[in-house]
Amino acid sequence: MLVIAGLGNPGARHARNRHNIGFMAVDAIAEARRFGPFRARYQGLAADGLIGDTRVMLLKPETYMNESGRSVGAALRYAKLDLSALIVIHDELDLAPGKVRVKVGGGDAGHNGLRSITAHLGPDYKRVRIGIGHPGDKALVYHYVLSDFAKSEAGWVEAVCRAIAEAAPLLVAGQDASFQNKTHLLIEAAGFGEKSSA
Length: 198
Fold this sequence. Notes:
It is a single chain. By secondary structure, this protein is an alpha/beta fold. The chain contains 6 helices and 7 strands. α1 crosses α5 and α5 packs antiparallel against α6 (176-189). The model has no long low-confidence stretch (mean pLDDT 95).
């Protein structure tokens, strides 16, 4: 069994924030893979289902971003899973908008959700990083991540979430490079890929 936790802040006010793209991606997986309904569990909202032959719990912590580790830790403890069974989907300032990258372990790069999970559980979990771009000035970051995606960004945000949902079986199977490649191709096919090969 795996836990895929999307990071974000609870409530309608935050629903379209850049910081909430992790929630959006998890919702897209739940819809595409016909998961059961999200129910209040583990200080969050959780839904169970199958991706391929693998049992997966999708989790959206309701603790606010900077306490994400409380919810993720509770889910892992309940399911008696270690960090190798955890995949965290989150927004990434240091990637261009719409880029998707996978890595295991590493620092939190100032991301409060990652910082909380690492503080509770350690750093050695898989992260799916969704680029949201950087506002260009450190002083603007707080407002930037808590502001909504612009209407003009809706297309690529939807394309990225759909691509992650479609490529999810590769992610669950541990084929990270193939997952990354497939999401890139799907996003490009939807007309939103970057032309660079970086």
